[in-house]
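call fold target=Alpha/beta hydrolase
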Amino acid sequence: MHAQLSGLRGGKDALDQLSRPGPLTALRGDLGMVGIPGVVFAPEEGLGLAAVAFGHDWLQPADRYADLLRHLATWGIVAAAPGSHRGALPSHAGFAADLRTTLDVCAGVRLGDGRISVDARRTAFAGHGIGGGAAILAAAGHSRVRAVVSIAIAQTRPSALDAARTVTVPTLHLAAGNDTVSPATGHAEPVAMAAGGPVVLRTLKKATHTGFLDGIHWSDLLLSGSPDAKTRRLTRGLVTAFLLRELCDETGAPLDELVDGKVAGTEVVARS
């Protein structure tokens, strides 16, 4: 167990701790060396680590998620984000395939001059917007993935809703209460209701679709909302807690409360 997680007094305490950087130094690398554009963040060293492949939203560069990816690495989770399929008409199936390839690369090669390795049995898919939908597509039929996270998920073609029925691993959906791009009622809620395994759907009440992003990009002119530090802080804590529990076997009531209990500024809409 991380020393920082011992002695936590409840979900509020856990959120405060897990929304801050963890005890490890994070390194940044480039996925381009294996033929896929994108970034990878990893702890400075560690063997048998957990890993997550993260899918970007429509038009978004992977760098807009560096805040979250780097944060996960400081808590001992390798986080990689392919930068493919960023055009106006992306292939959702192709993007899902790239997420699978990214996870396979993380698990199949030593990173950081051989000082970092990933345990293929401790892996997850995650993503924002269409990247969340692609994460569901990637997880469908994947034999080793242990968890899935979507953030303000958007429906995809092939259907993420149909794919969700075959995903039996624990899934966390984070929805934005003020999302006008992919409102939860037409996206996160039906996908969560179709889940083939344990699922938590939590709404961040004041968040917008783009509140999860960092920095400035020309696509901000096309999408409502704007990057929000409070939304990112809350997301860091919630996603880190879920992945530590599901991939790293971290346990305890404070962590469980943060995953599926009461958290200020949010509401659990569905749980199974």
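return ok
The mean pLDDT is 91. The radius of gyration is 17 Å.
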